[in-house]
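Our platform keeps sequence and structure together, in a single record for each protein. Nothing more is needed to write down the fold, since each code stands for a local backbone conformation. An entry from our holdings is shown next, in its original layout:
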Amino acid sequence: MHTFKPPSSITNWMLDKVDTSLRRALVCITNATSQLRAAYQQDVMSLTHETVQYRSFVYSECHLYGQNVLPSTFQLFENVKDVIEYYVHLDYEVFRDSILEIHDECRKYCKYATIAQAGYVYVLTNFKALENQMQSKASSLTSCSIDSCTKAENKRAVGATATGLGVLGVAVGAALVPLDGGVTLTLSVAGAVSTFYGGTQTSAVAQDQAAAQLYAQNAAIFRQLVESLQNFIEAVEIVARFLSLLETELSGLAEIGVDQEFKKLHYHKIRGKARGLVERCACFIEIKPVIQSDLQSMREQLDKRYAAQWKTGFNNLNLEMET
């Protein structure tokens, strides 16, 4: 019988990368929801108008993502876990005789993985656009922070000088009382005005420094949030691609004439990493209630215009996937 070697796409390096991605997905989605909660625990009255607006956009994106895309992620991880468990529980002979059935199941899961990937591309594109806007705003906030600190130092110096002149004017005015009441009044008034101006400038220092700190804090929160979500999406994309590669490799192994040695190599290659991959998937699936409760615990008002645009784009994406 003529035998041939099917193309092999899955390497040990790829399996290690999937394992790492499963770990990262768990950490990234946990960090993202924690940072999202931190962002919404801030007092709105202390935020700038632009920050409140971006917060509404990010919340709307996360809410819509949680409703429409995130469920497919947990389904993807459950599907990967189901397929990999064959390599854990079946011995080689049973696996060899079941390759076609395993492939058919994997192919069915790949359809869901493709839909999940498309959803993530859509979400990632939205987050990229938001990130670009927020990064631009963050640069402005950083500039404002630097300007505020500079103004604060200038005002501190002006305040100290004015306060000194005010004290001197009051002292000189008091000393000249016996000599000339008019001169005394002029110097005393000038000193009082300088003292008041100096006190006002010194008070403004604290306001500018507080504003600078707020700008920097908000910019940092949004940068961390977007970074965590992007890392999560990239990790999930690797897992989905792995499922697609596995389907391709199983398809090749199911062909008539494939050398049994190649089937055995494939089996042991996956089996060597299978238990770890199953455990990673199970750990991710276990946090589903936590992630869902985190997202549901936030009661921000959805931006209706943003939500309408999002749903239109997402529905168009689903129509494209069906055709």
Q: What stands out?
A: The chain has one domain: 12-322. The chain has a mean pLDDT of 76. Residues 12-322 form a domain with the Hemolysin E; Chain: A; fold (CATH 1.20.1170). The longest helix spans residues 99-175.
